[in-house]
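Quick one: examine the sequence and fold tokens given here and explain what the tokens say about the fold. Here goes:
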Amino acid sequence: MKGLWQPAVYWPVWLSLFAGTFLLREIWALVTHRTQDTLSDWVWDILRITAHEPLTGWNGTDYLVFGAWLTLFSWLTWHFFFRVFA
């Protein structure tokens, strides 16, 4: 049996709790119609992004950042939960 503090157990549990706490707060803000209290609204305000912007309005930096995020998210998911790409 794996110990609680081994990385194969610790990291998925920690990430799940962190993501769950974050999502709980975001969902609560959306359910109570306080969209100005979400992290995405704050980021969009700082970056001056308009809602429902078409993909044709994106520039090269937007695509590179999105691609980097997607790559990192995919790699971490496979690494932590399926123990691939270790």
Observations:
- The radius of gyration is 17 Å.
- The first helix runs from residue 7 to 31.
- The helical segments are 7-31, 39-47, 60-82.
- The chain has a mean pLDDT of 84.
